């Protein structure tokens, strides 16, 4: 049984360590981080998984972003980063973190979610390539994926993804 908890302030550096371990050096230079600069994550949607000794083995954080759509500015949830310690990969932790996030985001009133990632992994959760939604460069448009938490939530929503101002 996988137990997920909300990340606390005390967990911050342990999660940072896990992200450093799981991602290539320079992860914070990724364009998606520019959308997170100076913006608080959605606390209720930042989750950690722990092993029996209490060490963090998986984590997910989520940020609000906006899309400057021709039909007005729209809110979206930017999912990630999500990471699972290499010794625990393939045990379903990543799926548990993502599915819990999507469930709680829907309950929390979020309509649409996007991320930058591998479609072959995220397709299983219902993510599809988003056409016309552009992340800050340099981002491969093939990796900009989205999912609707309310039917039609991405319909007609196109344009650049921008930082949610605090
Ligand atoms: C991606 C990640 C979070 C998945 O976590 P996980 O707990 O291992 O995932 P799950 O156990 O839920 O799923 C494992 C399955 O996903 C597959 N998978 C993992 N990463 C994948 C990828 N990038 N593309 C396609 N499939 C992938 C595995 O091969 C495995 O397949 P199987 O079920 O057929 O055996 C984890 O591998 C990780 O931390 N990777 C490094 C950081 C990273 O890339 N994060 C995502 C950024 S977009």
UniProtKB/TrEMBL annotation:
Keyword Transferase: yes
UniProt-listed Pfam families: Acetyltransf_9
Coiled coil: none
Domain N-acetyltransferase: 2-150
GO molecular function terms attached to this record: acyltransferase activity, transferring groups other than amino-acyl groups
Alphabetical UniProt keywords: Transferase
Gene3D superfamilies hit by this protein: 3.40.630.30
Name the record gives this protein: N-acetyltransferase
Organism: Rubellimicrobium roseum
Phylogenetic placement of the source organism: Bacteria, Pseudomonadati, Pseudomonadota, Alphaproteobacteria, Rhodobacterales
């Amino acid at each position: 049984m996988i137990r997920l908890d909300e990340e606390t302030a005390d967990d911050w550096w342990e999660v940072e360590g896990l992200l450093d371990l799981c991602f290539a050096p320079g992860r914070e230079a990724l364009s998606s981080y520019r959308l997170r600069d100076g913006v608080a994550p959605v606390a209720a949607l930042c989750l950690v998984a722990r092993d029996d000794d209490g060490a963090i083995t998986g984590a997910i954080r989520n940020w609000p972003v906006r899309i400057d759509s021709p039909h007005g500015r729209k809110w979206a949830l930017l999912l990630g980063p999500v990471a699972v310690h290499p010794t625990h990969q393939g045990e379903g932790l990543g799926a548990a973190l993502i599915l819990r996030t999507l469930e709680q985001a829907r309950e929390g009133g979020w309509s649409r979610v996007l991320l930058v990632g591998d479609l072959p992994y995220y397709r299983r959760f219902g993510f599809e390539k988003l056409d016309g939604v552009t992340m800050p460069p340099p981002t491969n448009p093939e990796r900009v994926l989205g999912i609707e938490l309310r039917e039609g939530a991405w319909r007609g929503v196109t344009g650049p993804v921008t930082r949610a101002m605090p």
